[in-house]
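Lab meeting prep.
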Amino acid sequence: MLRPINMLFSGDISGFLLRILMLLPALVIAVSFHEAAHAWMANRMGDPTGKNVGRITLDPTKHFSIWGIVMFLFIGFGWGKPVPTNPRNYYNYKKGNALVAISGVTTNLIIAVIFTVVLSLLTVTNVYDFILPYSIQTDASFLNILHNIIFYIAYLNLILLFFNLIPIPPLDGHHLVKGFIARKMPGFYMAYMRYGFIVLMFLLFLVPGVSSLLGSLCFWVMRGVAFIFGAPFGL
């Protein structure tokens, strides 16, 4: 059964540090693949800007912001370094803009599905039941940690997917609608680009239910994949 563990500090320092260690692989994979996909797709569409600064790589040091990591681990919201692009270089502006925008979230979706499948197969094949009776307690604890690491990889990739699809700058989703807004409402477009980050913070931290909705979307996807393989999924 797939079970998340609490990400927030609850007074148990050792437990909190363990949760951070289990979250880090997921965070590194989700952000590194997401940003590298942007740079790769931009280069494919004719813009080598990201490639020229070394962003077509899975090296996390090229993609991470220290403050972004710290904020994520302590308040659940963080960020990576945006990949620099020059849309004027695209062979086809509209196509390039759309493909570069969705390349990151598409990569996150693929990773999330793969790791949810892995978790489902580990469950339905009774791997844990086979190993645990012959394991000492430390081995059992290791399997529990491994289980949670795999869960977090799937879950955080889905969080990054749905979060980035919010059509508010600086998120990827705004690239899919900004052309329409700029043409139809040029005055609003200027405010939209200027104050988007403030609106995003207001939405996430002051509007009830937004964070819960993002989490629910992730669980629905994971439940769907687990159902296909006959794996139980509990919260």
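Slide two material, second protein:
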Amino acid sequence: MPTDSKPFLVVATTGRALAASAARAGHPVVVLDFFADRDTHALAGQCRAVMAANAMRFDRRALLAAASALGPPECCAGVVYGSGFEGRTGLLTRLAARRRLYGNDPSVVVTVKDPARFIPLLDRAGIRHPEVRRTAPQDPVGWLVKQPGGAGGTHVRHAGKRRVRAGSYFQRLEPGRVFSALFLADGRRACILGFNEQWTTPARPGRPFLYGGAVSRVTLPATVASDLHVRLDALVAATGLVGLNGLDFLLRDEEWLVLELNPRPTATMELYDPDYPRGLFDWHLRACDGELPAGAALPRAARAHAVVYAALAWQVSEGFTFPDCCRDIPCPGTRFTPGDPICTVHAAESDPETAMAFVRRRQGVLERAIMEEAASAVGA
């Protein structure tokens, strides 16, 4: 792990949580992400938005140019990446050229995000999963269609009769509650940091499974938790996963089924970051170098966050005040169309149920305030 003062290059859909965690251990960072939010600017040495003009994805040319300007190889401690590269491993390879990559190798990302490789791997490890097929089912009812390489639920929708994009696959829609496991890996075994319950939202037309939020410190049946630990160790050994990762799964009674594996730091990392004195960015670096903690830290609170999406077209005014519970705060003048993510709201309480109730309440208050200002701007 680097010990000099060179900054790490953080690249993700949103880099704020990684930058906040890095700051706790004194790791300087420069951030390239989609939004260049106010709090990200405050945490990073430099920050630049590199999202494509007409799509929620990286602008390849802008990203590589910004990386050369703000984090050239000779002045970069290493690259730490988050979401946004699941379907663009070639771009990740370019970004990592002559820079140390702290995270999974692009070949590992391909393995766990390509169902043709990942599903047989799950089968060999004895890990259950919903039925998956490449060709469209004769009756699409009860099936999802997914685009490999997506994240945050933007790549998932209900299957229908219409044509799908090349490379898409179909997954049977199964009943159950959606959970995730946040874990560190050293290429041989895993250290599970905690289990979370997650929820989705149909905030954008045609995207009914967008990431809505999560709550930490949930308790699973003992048999499920034990089985997950064993199976996840086998999965890490089979893939060589390193650093922070997340496993999404369905739970029904005492049966669990894997939905997806996210081979990079996930949004739920900040639900646990305060429990580690030097933060999880630091543990991500150490795990990539083969070191794992002796066990998960004792959680000091149950934490929840929720994504606030725009219900109406809105531009952030200079006078609009975001509550203290907000993160990923957009700069004044930022414009949003319906379905765009605006920010996240947070809560920390003694138990998951209370934390979820508080974060939902805060989310509702902020959404109403935004809608009122958006509506008044239209009527002005």
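Talking points for slide two:
The mean pLDDT is 94.
The first strand starts at residue 8 and ends at 11.
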